[in-house]
Amino acid sequence: MEIIATGKHDEWPAQLWSAHKGLKLEALEKKGYFKATISKEAKTGPILIRILDKKQVSTAFTFVISKQKETLETEPNNQISNAQKIKKIPTLINGRLEKKGDMDFYHIQLKKGQVLSAKLDGYSLRSPIDPFLHIHGPDGYETAIASDTHNLDPHLIYKADESGQHTLQVFAIKSKASADISFTGTSDAVYRLELILGLPSMPEMAVNHEDCKTPSELAVPVTCAGHFSKPGEKNEFKFKADKGSQVQIRIEAHQLHYPTDPVMYLYDSSGKLIKEIDDNKTSRDPSYLLKVGSKEPYGVEVAERYGRSGKAFRYRLVLETPEPDFSPTLAKDIHILKEEKTLEIKIQLNRTNGHKTPLYAEIVGLPEGLQMEGLDIPADAKDATFKMQSDINTPTGHHPFQIRVTEKSEGQERQKLAIYSFQTAASRGDYLINDTNQAWLSYNRTSKQVQDATKIEKKQP
Asked: What is the pLDDT of residues 172-212, one digit of tens each?
């Protein structure tokens, strides 16, 4: 299959990089075009790819490998009258809102009573869009719409009231909050539209947990799965903990991609409300750190903000004792080494819950001539910085690497890789890939350095 890389390409042919072993990528003669060969053994799901030319490393792009039949959007399809006909479902359409005001239309034949699931990934691919799905019935009138889910991408589930040709409309506004709500489109406003007949399967929890039994007294630590089976239902739980200890309480739903909007109510042993917890600064899932002041049981009540119910309205309840921890992160994923200048690569340690243990950081994966010595990090340090300078033996090119941070305590060893997050303050929900532990170092030797190296070689006997 062919991949089109939009934008300007000064250097060609370029290299398309991926760490995925089942994907082979090679540049074609035409600028911006690559050939992708996917092996039968390739794992499905989203992966990261980058474009490498002589001068630079591109930002990371999300590429999705699937076993489903895929097709391309065919222009023109910006009106109902020239909508693209979808002959077979299930299918997956790769499309693009190419310019301001662009809309895409698709004709779909449905029988009365059939359920159409239309799920769009656009924002999830880090396209700069907030997309919408509208469906028009055989008479041309709009019958259903869909917008945000766990992020800005829509998922439309529609049951046909009558048989005939239906039209699905795709359009978007800018993902960045703005007073401008006109329809948007750019060369990088790509999306993937999955169409299936029937109700879609629910997202699975990464780990299967026992169902929360209500009402019941829970032992800390505990993780269990719950759901709301009746409208307006509230699930009640009790738990005990040692006086003077701490208990981290979390209700997880939004981060698991469920439609549930959970609210948590915390009560003392007399039934007095301590706190109502809803969204926090970084998540739509509630969490609270309780400083235990009594040996008597506390109460936790979980509700759905809008009283909704059904199989899809699930959540995960977590009660745990917070442990000292650290989470190393990088502020940049691409680092450029320049001649006669010192490159600094800084990691934040993000210590939590009183973590005060010495750490050791090292860079792994760089070729000979680019290695840096490891860093011993004091127990009270909040960050650490690697420093590097180039010389005539420094290899040129673009080199992937990782930063490994090791904690040694009481005879045990724990290692973590530093993470660079694609999430920013402007992000509005999860992407298909939120972060990477793969960073890059680029170095291009100047003509002056080449001349200096030649002079040194000539002086050698």
From this structure: 999 987 777 889 999 999 999 999 999 888 777 666 678 88
Helix (H, G, I), strand (E, B) or coil at 455: helix
pTM here is 0.89
- 428: tokens are 């509005």
pLDDT score for 178: 78
d(CA 443, CA 208): 46
Give the mean pLDDT of the chain: 91
Tell which residue, 235, 386, 407, 398, has the closest CA to residue 316.
235
> At a CB cut-off of 8 Å and minimum separation 6, what does 304 contact?
228, 233, 260, 261, 262, 263, 313
Strands (E), 66-214: 70-72, 84-86, 91-96, 104-110, 115-121, 129-136, 142-146, 155-159, 164-174, 190-197
Q: Report the relative pairing of strands 155-159 and 115-121 from DSSP bridges.
A: antiparallel
Tokens of 346: 């800084």
The 10s digit of each residue's pLDDT in 352-371 is 999 999 999 999 999 988 88
The two structure tokens encoding residue 48: 């990261």
Do 257 and 287 contact (CB within 8 A), yes or no? Answer: no
The HSE-up count of residue 355 (CA atoms within 13 Å, CB side) is 21
- pLDDT score for 208: 66
**Residues 382, 349: Cα–Cα separation, whole Å:** 6
Q: Pick the closest to residue 261 from 228, 222, 204, 306 (CA basis).
A: 306
How far apart CA 165 and CA 110 sit, in angstroms, is 6
Q: Other CB atoms closer than 10 Å to residue 24's CB: what's the count? A: 14
Residue 46 CB-density burial (10 A; 0-12 exposed, 13-18 middle, 19+ buried)? middle
Closest CA to 322 of 434, 210, 247: 247
12 Cβ contact partners less than 8 Å away, ≥ 6 residues apart: 27, 31, 53
Which residues lie closer than 8 Å to 256 by C-beta, 6 or more apart? 203, 205, 314, 315, 316
Q: Is the pLDDT of residue 321 over 90?
A: yes
The whole-angstrom separation of Cα 445 and Cα 453 is 11
Burial of 196 (0-12, 13-18, 19+ CB in 10 A): middle
Amino acid 103 reads M
In this prediction, residues 62-88 reach a mean pLDDT of 93
For residue 455, the model assigns a pLDDT of: 46
State the Cα–Cα distance between residues 376 and 228, nearest whole angstrom: 50
Looking at residue 205, what is its pLDDT? 65
